[in-house]
Amino acid sequence: MRIFKLLLVFMLALILVTGCDEDDKNPVGTDFPTNLNNLETVMIITPWQDLAREASILIWTTTEPTSSSLEINGTIFDLDWEYFGTDWETWLYYDGTGGFGDTFNYELVINNNTITGSVEAPFLPDITWPDFNFNQNYAFDWELPTSPDLQFIEFYLETMDNEYFEEWEIAGSERSYEINKSYYQDYSNTYTYMDIGIMPVNFNLHNSGNDLVFANTYEGMYLETRTIDDFKRIATKIMQNR
Q1: Where are the alpha helices (DSSP H) in the chain?
Q2: Which of 204, 201, 213 is nearest to 60 (CA)?
Q3: DSSP assigned state of 161
Q4: For residue range 10-48, what is the model confidence (pLDDT) as tens digits?
Q5: Would you call 211 exposed, middle or buried from its count of C-beta atoms within 10 A (0-12, 13-18, 19+)?
Q6: What pTM was estimated for this model as a whole?
Q7: Cα dist from 209 to 31, 46, 73, 174, 212, whole Å
Q8: Which residues contact 11 (CB under 8 A, 6 or more apart)?
Q9: Contact 5, 220 (CB under 8 A)
Q10: Are 121 and 215 spatial neighbours (Cβ–Cβ below 8 Å)?
């Protein structure tokens, strides 16, 4: 389950890159960019286990990194980049860099561009998820010991044929949210997977707003109806489309 959460958070982070129009207005009055396509470099730090102090780090840049280095909390990382058509990405998983509520001191160097600073990882939301009913709005509340810079409410629903994603940005001081049933009530008999989550975020902008570093946590609930037969049908469909 922890590995699934890790993959989900990075999937959501990448959706942030392509999910906003350039003219979108930031709804909660922060400087967090509404269109990450305009940025040159983005680094995401995600702590996972409070006691084990594990963290995942994802970096992407639109500039080909002919030379690069990363240091976080005194630990130096080797960066292996992979090109994805429009940007270069590297992903790291490391034990001992920090945990929920800890400060990450970082220095990222890509070619002649240096990004240095510190960001505090948000705490993990404390929540008991209410029972879910497809015919009702879904309201929930949570606790956090401190307020992050902002929060995202994530909604993802999957059927055998389609995927649906919505994301709402709310203030870091908010502790409740309600999702309208119109997003899911028509899929009660056809959904195969659904996830609802809270993602607190602290962030820094660097180099005149061209570079973004943010730390996030994620707490979610999920419903799943997929069976072995479903996965067989998905595999068959993939092979037919090759």
Answers
A1: 2-18, 228-240
A2: 213
A3: S
A4: 445 544 544 444 444 455 667 887 666 678 999 999 887
A5: buried
A6: 0.83
A7: 9, 21, 23, 26, 7
A8: none
A9: yes
A10: yes
